[in-house]
Amino acid sequence: MHGIWRFCVILLVGGASAVPTEQIPLGQDVVVVSKRPLHGRFLHVTDFHPDRFYQVYASTAQDAACHRGQGPAGIYGAETSECDSPVALINQTMDWIHHNLRDKIDFVIWTGDSARHDNDEEIPRNAAQVIGFNEMMVQKMFEVFGKHSGDGEDENPNDDFVIPIVPAFGNNDILPHNVMAKGPNTWTRTYSRIWRQFIPEAQKHQFEQGGWYNVEVIPNKLAVFSLNTLYFAENNAAVDGCASPKEPGYRQLEWMRIQLQYMRERGVKAILTGHQPPIRSDVKNLWDETCWQKYTLWLRQYRDVIISSHYGHFNFDHFLLQDFEDLDDDTKDGRMEYISSKTSRASTTDDDLHAAVSPDYWLGMRDEWSGLPRPPNSMTWPEAESEVDETIKKHDSAAKKEKRKRKKFLNKIGGLHAEHFATSFVTASVVPNLFPTVRVFEYNTTGLGSHKSHDVSDTSVTQLDDSDYESDMVQRKKSKKHKFKMPEPPSKSAPPGPAYSPQTLSLMRYTQYYANLTHINNDFLADKWNEGKHKGKKPHNKDHEPQPEKFHFQVHYDTHDDDVYQLPDLTVPQMLDLARRIGDFKPPADAADAADEEDEAATNKKKHKKKHRKPAKHTKRNAPWYTFIRRAFVETKPAEEIEELFGH
């Protein structure tokens, strides 16, 4: 009788067009009692860095860190300094989300760093602080997104929130920061408890092995993967890349491969999330090369499944392109040499107090994007497939020439849908090293309104054990290179996935919000440690009563309605074209000639990074480039400084 009653309950709600109110644990029986309507939006928040030791009107100097002394630290934070977030900023941010976004989004991705930096020798971090800050942030999430009708007190921890919340490890969510050894370890067990309401019960054991998991935020349709990028990070001294089967980075990627294959077989799409982005440039690298290689190969092979990837950590608002042409031949053949990247490769120093970078990072990005293939004049790519203009067709030789250019361009980018590339979105932080930000993505919900209720029989989780790696371990004894299982590519008959062609679940736009703390704090009409924009200004006395303006986030920009970006959607062809426009510093008179030039640099492109050279500034005004830089720094750099550092 109980089974019949359960079946009846599911039938009663089967026609509702929504996702279940609870996070559904994979592999468990679930009774769906109600559904939320799909809004086609999700929230990305990252790098809160709450600091209970923050003092209003304290000094922003390096030896004070907004913990003591007298200075310009405002009630809601010391914008553009390297101080962390006062609890007042956390409270106001979550309150704004509650009143403005809570009932308009379907899930939340939360990409780590929910503890303060270890930036004060007089108040060193300890494990109790790190754990306490993260527990506080879970409580803040519950205050906004939790059920408050008593459901949170039942025995099912996955039933406490009205929408799925998907957190990820940040490099400051452990002690010491940046260093996490192979799991299971103290930290994976600790977060298994702290995040018990977010991690599907069936994946708890897997999470304790290394801190990775996934959640089907729309059952049988969309899964969000939470990756532990500490195991990919170049500066994690406790691990050594992703080549050896002994390494947790290797195991995480094997888990990811198995799960993505399982998603493909079920017709489920995936969003990847993590803390440290896969930055790989002449100027800055965050990931071990072996991890970057294999991860990028996974992006290529599962491009029909993966919709997008989202990261934090870097504080600056921008995006990255992964070029599949940068994959080594060995990687594409399923072989990877075991090398100690800690000794054989030059390591990039990552200042974890603030992920600051020199202007060379941005200029290098522009220099690289300036070499992206340019569509010939006869094409309207990426808006639509276009043939040679009718007026040109009258002249056979000209028509043939244009067709050759068109074919060459499409070969370089991987066809009409640019399937030689992938995009990673890097969201700016809540901590006011610039201005606090949050981001809301919109995705296509066509056909999702009547999706069936969760079918528990189709959601078992494949677990990994040591036997999965035995063949690889034997191989290493015979060869200096490890062989790994090569993921299958998309079927030749499969259409392009949501990342490449607008369709159900494709990302359509995002809206960036920011809080202008200079205005809100209402207190005022850099070397390695940045004291902030108010350095040298006479601060209020500590007994002064702050008189802030009403706290609020305002729209910074919208990628769709924006006059400069003008993106109809966020598919790879559109993002590749935006990157090309950002990198385009040629005068307009030369643009037509540039379209006809042979891209010899791309043809002779080396697989590994080029020898570093300092990129040059460009003086020709380029609206996409100038706008990109303004937004990367969240409007905290004045125009004259941008022009001095980056040109126009």
Topology:
Elements: H1 2-13, E1 18-20, E2 35-37, E3 41-45, E4 50-51, E5 85-86, H2 87-100, E6 107-110, H3 127-145, E7 165-167, H4 186-194, H5 204-210, E8 213-218, E9 222-226, H6 248-266, E10 269-273, H7 289-301, E11 306-311, E12 318-323, H8 329-332, E13 335-337, H9 341-344, H10 359-369, H11 390-393, H12 396-413, E14 421-426, E15 437-443, H13 470-478, E16 481-483, E17 507-514, H14 517-521, E18 554-558, H15 572-583, H16 588-596, H17 600-603, H18 623-632, H19 639-646
Parallel strand pairs: 3-6, 4-5, 6-7, 9-10, 10-11, 11-14
Antiparallel strand pairs: 1-2, 3-15, 8-9, 12-14, 13-16, 15-17, 17-18
Helix pairs in contact: 2-3, 4-5, 6-7, 10-15, 15-18
Strand arrangement, major sheet: 7-6-3-15-17-18
Helix content: 25-40%
Largest beta-sheet details: 6 strands, mixed
Topology, number of strands: 18
Describe the structure.
The protein has helices at residues 2-13, 87-100, 127-145, 186-194, 204-210, 248-266, 289-301, 329-332, 341-344, 359-369, 390-393, 396-413, 470-478, 517-521, 572-583, 588-596, 600-603, 623-632, 639-646, and strands spanning 18-20, 35-37, 41-45, 50-51, 85-86, 107-110, 165-167, 213-218, 222-226, 269-273, 306-311, 318-323, 335-337, 421-426, 437-443, 481-483, 507-514, 554-558. By secondary structure, it is α/β, with parallel strands linked by helices. It has 19 helices and 18 strands. The strands form 5 sheets. It has a 6-stranded mixed beta sheet with strand order 7-6-3-15-17-18, with no helix packed on it. Strands 8-9-10-11-14-12 form a 6-stranded mixed beta sheet, sandwiched between helices. The termini are far apart.
